[in-house]
Amino acid sequence: MAAPHAWRAARVTPLGELNAPPRMTAVALRLAVQVVLVWSLWRGLYAQTGTTAGLSRDQAVTYAVLAVLASRLRELDQYAGRDTVLQHMHFGTIVYWYLRPLPPQRYYALRAAGEQLYGLAWALTGYVICLAAGVVEPPRSAAVAGVFVLSMLLGQWVLYYVMLVLDQLCFWTVRNTAAMLILLFAQNLLSGVYAPLWFFPDWFLTMSAFLPFQATLSVPLSLYVGRIPLSDAVFQLSVQAAWVVVLALFTRLLWRRAARRVISQGG
Q1: Transmembrane stretches, by residue range (predicted)?
Q2: What do you get for the CA distance between the two ends of the chain, in Å?
Q3: What is the pTM of this model?
Q4: Do 82 and 164 share a domain, yes or no?
Q5: 154, 171, 159, 158: which is closest to 104 by C-alpha?
Q6: Beta strands 51-52 and 55-56: pairing type?
Q7: pLDDT tens across 161-188, in order?
Q8: According to the model, what pLDDT value does residue 93 have?
Q9: What is the DSSP code string of 158-183?
Q10: Which of 138, 163, 179 finishes a domain?
Q11: Residue span of the structural domain in which 56 resides
């Protein structure tokens, strides 16, 4: 793959989706059902109360719906194209990542960028529809909107490295499908995808504060709904940026060590 055309790697997974209209229809239906269900669930939970865990009903509903939409940023069917690290390790084809003119770490980054841009189109479309329908609240001010966008960008950057670490673990394990599912569940739980972290016990919040997961989604959405005030935004953004640096260095080290484990016969 020549360097001027390396950007084509970003189209791998999105093209697989765009060339399969039934799959896109299924994604749209699933996303619509998820939004309706979480909207109904959180409105029902707040039917007999005003504020819980520092969140009002509208804040909780907005958080939950935005979490569903944000999940589309990296929720693409990579298995259909057989281009996941897990599949390459299973079939012994990971060696081809190291035989291309394009370094594997750059190919991985370009592909992830394409997936996130494609997912962003879904998320933005869903957000505009939900905002017009009154399902979610708009940002309380232009400052909140700006901080949210910056925090979301940093959060997706952290998420990229978290997912990269999970994929890199495949170089050191043989049968890792179950482990990957457990790790993905933990990532979704600790990042606040299933429920805002503010509803969990204090010990859980303390533990998650030392992990990068809440920086991926919980922090941006908490800034959006006002659970984290603007006065704390600088600190939260700094923590997110610090995780980006730490994980970037860590994954760079893992790439070097992973290359030593690849042999010419395959994975």
Answers
A1: 117-136, 142-166, 178-200, 233-255
A2: 21
A3: 0.85
A4: no
A5: 171
A6: antiparallel
A7: 998 888 888 787 756 667 677 777 888 8
A8: 74
A9: HHHHHHHHHHHGGGT-SS-HHHHHHH
A10: 138
A11: 1-138
Rounded distance, CA 255 to CA 259, Å? 6
Q: Whose CA is closest to 193, among 45, 91, 50, 68? A: 68
Question: By three-state DSSP, how is residue 266 classified?
Answer: strand
Averaged pLDDT for residues 10-37? 82
- Residues 166, 64 share a domain: no
What amino acid is encoded at 202 in this protein?
D
**203-212 pLDDT per residue, tens:** 888 888 889 9
* Among candidate residues 139, 187, 138, the one with its CA nearest the CA of residue 161: 187
Two tokens, residue 34:
């998820």
In 3D space, the residue among 171, 204, 172, 170 whose CA is nearest the CA of residue 184 turns out to be 170
Length of the chain, in residues: 267
Residues 134 and 173 in one domain: no
Amino acid occupying residue 228: I
Kindly give, in sequence order, each residue whose CB lies less than 8 Å from that of residue 49, ignoring residues fewer than 6 positions away. Answer: none
As for how many domains the chain has, the answer is 2
